[in-house]
Write the structure tokens for this entry.
Amino acid sequence: MVSEKMYELGTKKSTIRTIFEFGRKRAAEVGEENIFDFSLGNPNVPTPEFVKNAAIEILQTFEPSAVHGYTVAPGNPKVRETLAESVNNRFGTNFTGKNFFITAGAAAAITISFKALAENGDEFITFAPYFPEYKCFVESVGAELKVVPAQPKDWQINFEEFEKIISPKTKAVIINSPNNPSGAVYSEETIKKLADILTDKSKKFGHEIFIISDEPYREIAYNIEVPYVPKFYKNTLVCYSYSKSFSLPGERIGYIIVPNEICDFEKIFGAVAGAARVLTHVNAPSLWQLVIAKCAGKSSDISIYEQNAKLLYNGLIDAGFECVKPQGAFYLFPKALEEDDYAFCERAKKFDLLLVPGADFGAPGYFRAAYCIKTETIEKSLPLFKKLAEEYQK
């Protein structure tokens, strides 16, 4: 009667959402101030004033048809040119508007990219820990997701395991840096090594292998440079979102960059447009296209995230947890205090600490804590983390 696969996806909530909903119910019982919800990566830094001012100016001064009407499917041409100029100024690239396809956020950008590249029997590879939605996105286009086991010492790519998994069926690899959930930034050395392997394997297998670079956290990095992947590997699709950088997750605005240097640019860009079409993309929200153009090149204040990262990291280390210091994004990914990370997260609920098991991200034995929450909430949580740790020492 219906697709069982779609029914399963629609009725089985993600662990993150389940924990978040538990937190809402628990808050009603004991008070919001007594719940320490580290489950959801919802930016708590206010949307910058310049974004609000841009939206108001556009609504008050632009013709309504320009604000609310259709644009061409890849996006408003002037907006695309403005974004290209901004990216070029930052990274020394040579993009024009024709390299940009504006999307309704990063999820749309990633799924469109998968759909554009996927053929029957293809495999996509990602590296644990990874954003769990990659799996259903890849499977939705008829391909298979292969996961390279994690390298917990630094959360860089486990190249030894990668070499075992890459095969003639590999169409693309998906990278996410700064990373959700580990907070790691892939180093230039890591990106160069990945590019060298993919160049070698592309020649060996007789077909190009692509990188899909998922970059919603690019601007949230702490005193470290995030390598710009197309400068190291020509067959890269960049998937970007303003959800995190401008605190706009509900507005759904982002883009795909298809570099000129990519193999057969016209065909790849055409496939992106075709994939967007069958995925019912007409155009990204017209108002928000205009807003991001007005705000191109501006940056948010990420000091709150950096402050929260230091506070939570130092507090957990002091309590006896093992954790790699985050370099970006707004997540910590410590080692759980028992092998079963689900059991650990259930035990944490005793102290109203809401944490996400690492197994959901392909890294069992760890847990994710999203610190995009009030600083005072983190401060109040630290004695509870210490009490939780003490229970394991008895």
Observations:
- The longest helix spans residues 188-205.
